[in-house]
Amino acid sequence: MHRINYPRAPDKDTSKDRSMKINIVDHPLIQHKLTLMRRKDTSVRTFRELVTEVAMLLGYEITRDLDLTMETIETPLETMESPLIEGKKLCFVSILRAGNGLLDGLMRLMPSVRVGHVGLYRDPESLAAVEYYYKVPTDIGERLTIVVDPMLATANSSIAAVDRLKQGGAGNMKFLCLLAAPEGVRAFNQAHPDVELYTAAVDRQLNDHGYILPGLGDAGDRIYGTK
Ligand code: PRP
Ligand code: URA
Questions:
Q1: Of all protein residues, whose CA lies closest to atom 1 belonging to ligand 1?
Q2: The domain 23-64+91-222 is classified under which CATH number: 1.10.760.10, 3.50.50.60, 3.40.50.2020, 1.10.620.20?
Q3: b/e per residue, 109-133, with b = 16+ CB within 10 A?
Q4: Tell me, what's the pLDDT at 124?
Q5: Could you report how far apart the first and last alpha carbons of the chain are, in Å?
Q6: Which residue's C-alpha comes closest to atom 7 of ligand 2?
Q7: Which ligand is nearest to the CA of 221?
Q8: Residues 6+ apart with CB under 8 A from 45
Q9: What residues in the chain have per-residue pLDDT under 50?
Q10: What confidence score (pLDDT) does residue 6 get?
């Protein structure tokens, strides 16, 4: 993984843009699978499987600094003190609906985790985020909250979701996506400098309709086959 927090010119090599603060998980397995997902002729079934697989790989990285607790266990040979994750301290929040694609993989990795949902869609004209659902664990303020959505484009959705979660009491948050646009990363950094971003790649730019270029298209449509 490499961390961008030093200045560089965005259009040429976004991986070195100093104006963005984001962690890029550039493991070869993730980059390979992301390429398969970007291909326009990748089937819904394969795309869905790849989102789940990449979510698990990204989940490995984003949970790297989770606290461990020691527990006394019996191996077949003797008693030992062995580390376990403090599972109750974590919460995933999926931004509906595409966030659920990532969530599926993350829940396979951590089956006991608590889960919240924020329903948001982008108004196609204004690109503003419109909320239609909100349900999160009541004790979210006591948990590390990992907000997930495959796409960070204008960042209107992610900023609105994190705003809402902060109002709802969430404190310690990270944001995980598959793909980000430089414009969105900068906007998110400005709105929520306390929330660390993780992604598999930062692409070149947004088009006039707020889609990421070169991107992978509409993540929700590709996961659920709605177009
Ligand atoms: C997509 C994506 C993000 C949002 C990103 O959702 O899953 O939530 O767009 O764009 P932004 O950074 O410009 O806000 P969409 O609104 O298409 O809804 P869906 O998940 O229900 O398809
Ligand atoms: N939402 C998507 O699903 N894809 C984009 O490229 C931008 C926003």
A1: 151
A2: 3.40.50.2020
A3: ebeebbbbbbbbebeeeeeebeeee
A4: 87
A5: 34
A6: 211
A7: 1
A8: none
A9: 5-12
A10: 35
